[in-house]
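A note from the maintainers: we've had questions about how concatenated examples are separated. There is no special marker in the raw files; a new sequence line simply starts the next protein. For clarity in this README we add a label.
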Amino acid sequence: MTVPDALTWDQRLLLALLVLDTVLLAVLELFFLPLRIGAVPLPVTVVVGAVTTPWLVSTTAKLVRPALSWVPLAVWVVVVFGLGLLGPGGDLVLIQDWRALVLLGASALPGALVLGGGLGQAAGRKPGRG
C-alpha cells in the first residue's frame, strides 16, 4: 500500500475554494427553494444543484485529487441537512414538501454518480469496471 503525497499549497487552496463554493451554493439552494411566482412554486435551485454539485465533485477530482472528490458532496449534504434542519434561530429552512426531496435527489444523486467515477479513477480502474 502506497501513501499518497501530501497536497501542495495550490491544491489545498483550490480545495478550500471549492469547499467554500459548495457551502455558498448549498445555502443559496436552500434559501431560494421556496421561491414562488404567484401561487406556482418555482424551484429553480433544484436545477442549480443538479448542475453544480456534480461539477464540484468532478472539478475536485480533476484539479485537486480523485481520492478527495468526496469532499464537496459531503460538505453539501452536511450544510443542507445542518442548516436545513437546525436553521438560523432554530427555524426549519428545509421545507417539508416535494421540493426538498427533489433538491436532495437532483443534487446528491448526480454528485454521487460522478463521485463513483472519480473514486474509480483514484483506484486505478476505469469507471464502470469492477
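[label: protein 2]
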Amino acid sequence: MNDQDIRTCECDCSEEIQDCNCRCVCERPRKYLKPNRTTLKCGSQVSATIPEETLTGTTFTLATLNVNTKGYRRPCIKFDFAGNIVTTEAVITLNFQIFKQCKGQFAPIPVGSVWTYSRLAAVTESDSFRFFSCDCNICGEECCVYSVVATVTGILPEINETIGSAVINNVSLSAIIAENM
C-alpha cells in the first residue's frame, strides 16, 4: 500500500448493537496541487552579417524578448537560443551571451554562461549553434528585456580582427517562464 491508498473509514454502528447494518464509508484523502503558472514566449530575431576585418570587441544583438513576471511566485525562466552560422573563408571566434535589462536599470546585466563558437580554419561552411540558459534571480513583479548578443573575440593575440566573413541567420530565442515551487 502506498501513500495514495491510505483510506479513512468511519462506521455509524456501535459495537453493542449486533444486528445493525453497519456500512463503512471509505474515502481517499484528496490532495490538491497548487497551480503552477507557465508561459511560453518567442522573441524577435534578426540576421547579422559579420564582414571581413571586423574588429575584436564588436557586438551584434541577435534576438530580444520582453518578459513580464507580474503575478508569478518565485519565477524562473529557461531560455533556448538557436541559429545558423555560415562562414565564407572565415577564421572567427564569437562569444554568445544573454543580457537582461529590467525596469530602473541603467545597463544590461549578463545572465548565465558565455557560449563560444570558433572557426579556426579559413573554410566556407555552415554550422547550427544552440544553447540554453536559466534566470531564476527575478523579482515577481519585474518587466525585463532579454537580449542575445554575439561578440567578436580575439582569434590569436596578434590578430584583432576577423578573417573572412560570417552570417548568423535563422535565429530563434524562446523562453519558458514558470513558477519555481
